[in-house]
C-alpha cells in the first residue's frame, strides 16, 4: 500500500457521517487543503475530533460555518462564535474535555448558572 496519498485519494475516502480527526491549534497547522476539499465535496454530518473549533474563517471553523459538522469533540469552542451559536440552538452536538459527555442545552444552562453563582461568591465574597 502506497503511504503517499494525493488529495483526491484522501477526499474520495471521506464520506457523509464519518468521524474525522483534524490536527491544528487555533487553525495553525490545520491541513487547509483537506478542509478545502471537504468543503468542495460538501461532505456533511461529520463528527470532528479536534483541539478546538478554530475561527469562523479558518481551518475546520469553515466546516462549522457551512453546517457540515453534526458533532464536535474538542477541548474548547471559545474562538469560534458560530460553534457556540449552533451548539446553543441544538444544531451542533459536542463533547468537551469536561468528562467527554453529551451536553444538552439544559446541561449548558445549568453549568453556566453554577459558574455565575461561583464567580459571584468568589468575587464578592458572598
Can you give keywords for this protein?
126 residues, alpha/beta, Glutaconate Coenzyme A-transferase, 4-stranded parallel β-sheet, 5 helices, Acetate CoA-transferase, NagB/RpiA_transferase-like, CoA_transf_BS
Concise account of the structure shown:
By secondary structure, this protein is an alpha/beta fold. The chain has 5 helices and 4 strands.
Question: Could you characterize the architecture of this molecule?
Answer:
Keywords: Transferase. It comes from Clostridium gallinarum. This is Acetate CoA-transferase. The chain has 126 residues and is α/β, with parallel strands linked by helices. It has a single domain (7-124), classed as Glutaconate Coenzyme A-transferase (3-Layer(aba) Sandwich), CATH 3.40.1080. The chain is built from five helices and four strands, in the order αβαβαβαβα. The chain has helices at residues 7-12, 32-41, 61-65, 81-89, 105-124, and strands at 19-21, 46-49, 69-73, 93-95. A four-stranded parallel sheet has the order 1-2-3-4, with no helix packed on it. The longest helix is centred in the C-terminal third of the chain and has 20 residues, at 105-124. The N and C termini lie far apart (65 Å). The mean pLDDT is 82.
Amino acid at each position: 500500500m502506497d503511504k503517499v496519498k494525493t488529495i483526491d485519494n484522501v477526499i474520495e475516502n471521506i464520506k457523509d457521517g464519518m468521524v474525522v480527526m483534524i490536527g491544528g491549534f487555533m487553525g495553525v497547522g490545520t491541513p487547509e487543503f483537506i478542509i478545502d476539499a471537504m468543503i468542495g465535496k460538501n461532505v456533511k454530518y461529520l463528527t470532528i475530533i479536534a483541539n478546538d473549533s478554530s475561527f469562523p474563517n479558518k481551518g475546520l471553523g469553515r466546516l462549522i460555518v457551512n453546517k457540515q459538522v453534526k458533532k464536535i469533540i474538542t477541548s474548547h469552542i471559545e474562538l469560534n462564535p458560530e460553534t457556540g451559536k449552533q451548539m446553543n440552538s441544538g444544531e451542533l452536538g459536542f463533547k468537551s474535555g469536561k468528562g467527554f459527555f453529551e451536553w444538552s442545552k439544559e446541561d449548558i444552562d445549568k453549568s453556566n448558572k453554577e459558574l455565575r453563582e461561583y464567580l459571584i461568591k468568589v468575587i464578592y465574597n458572598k
